[in-house]
Amino acid sequence: MKQYIAKIFSSDFLRKISWNLLGYALPVIVAIIMIPVVMRHTGLERFGVLTLIIVLIGSMTVFDFGITRSVTNSVRKYLDEKNDRAMLTVVKTGWLMITCVLLVISALFWFKSQWIATHFFNVSNQEIRDEIAASMKVVAFSLPFVIAQTIFVGVMEAFGAFKKISLGKSPFSILMYLVPMIISFYTPNLFYITLSLCLLRCIMAVAFYLMMCSEIRKVTPISLMSIAPTRHIALELAKYGGWVSVGNIIAPIMLYIDRFFVAGIVGASVFAYYTTPYDVVSRLAIVAVSVCGVLFPMLVTKIAQDVRSANSYFNKVMLGIFAILIIPAVAGIFLSKWFLSVWINPDFAEHSWIIFSMFLVGYLLHGLIQPAFVWIQASGKPWIIACCEIIDLSMYVIYLPWMTHHYGIIGAASAWNFRMLLNLVVLHILRYVLYKRDLRKSTGLQPAM
């Protein structure tokens, strides 16, 4: 049994997961220290708006239209085939496709900044609205860099360079919280805080471009700049990425839409009681994200070559994620009120400890969903994910506002948890069906008609 587990969780696999986890875990530690300080200096309403701006920057990855995951998939495939020129063409073509789209999106953010500040954020204070409008122009400038970085990281994941990714993210992860905290000592103005965040994201994109190029040079002397994008590769990326893009557009909407309903229905005055527990607990997602970031390129290869081995990795990953997440989930439920009292203050804890506990359960379910999600994409069936998420969103926008209107922030958290449970059941059933189909193919047995 020990030999079997050692074979499944090879030292290389665990080492990649560990480096990936470190890259995601470090900002969590820093955030726990920095968030109360920033909240104190900016005030509850400005801090709530700041969390929305950060969400907005992060959710711009929806505009990669699935190209990032498609690039990772194709780069891994061409690396296995030792086709260096095709691999580089994928990188260049995917990068160009995303840049063209983001320039259009950036222009809209720039020219519609005042409209976004007025209609997108539920803020009555005119001064804060003006700060938001100025911040949107800064966000518009940074968007092409933010999305380009996801391409560079996706390529490095295909190369298995998780240690380099982690080391590259770590200093920026610290600065993303440290710099806004320092600025908040001098001014609570959202423009300057947003400016610092966006400049850091631009510098980060340049750093990851240089790291990606160093990985490419290890396998081929061909320069990325000498490669021209091709129509054939663009169609290949669009075919796979088109379905992924549906999920990429819907997933962040599903993940963050509750915040905007809460802000619009219950108001910004109690918004932080909902978003702060969410922001802390959502960091548990780093466990599944770290593991699945390593799992995806491996499954792309193994599902096609040895589906039994792929399934073994999947089962062990599921067990590992559950074993890690169940501990903070159970402990947090009993200690959430005490933790929030010490971390922020007793009054804040009184209003938000129930929300904190509910999200702990929800993110345990969320973590267990991700391996099934990754398997379906790696098996070449991203359209399944897209169809599920369209149905999921159609249902969520009905029961989420109803529950929020009738039960406030507790209702919103309950709706979020119910969605996680439903996703867990559906995606694992679909994943199992795909596994059985691929297993029959690999053994030469056809399903009965």
Automatic annotation (TrEMBL):
It is found in: Cell membrane. It is a multi-pass membrane protein. Its main location: membrane. GO terms for cellular component: plasma membrane. It holds the Pfam family Polysacc_synt. Keywords: Cell membrane, Membrane, Transmembrane, Transmembrane helix. The chain crosses the membrane at residues 21-41, 47-67, 88-112, 132-155, 167-186, 192-212, 280-301, 313-334, 354-376, 383-402, 414-434. This is Flippase. It comes from Rouxiella silvae.
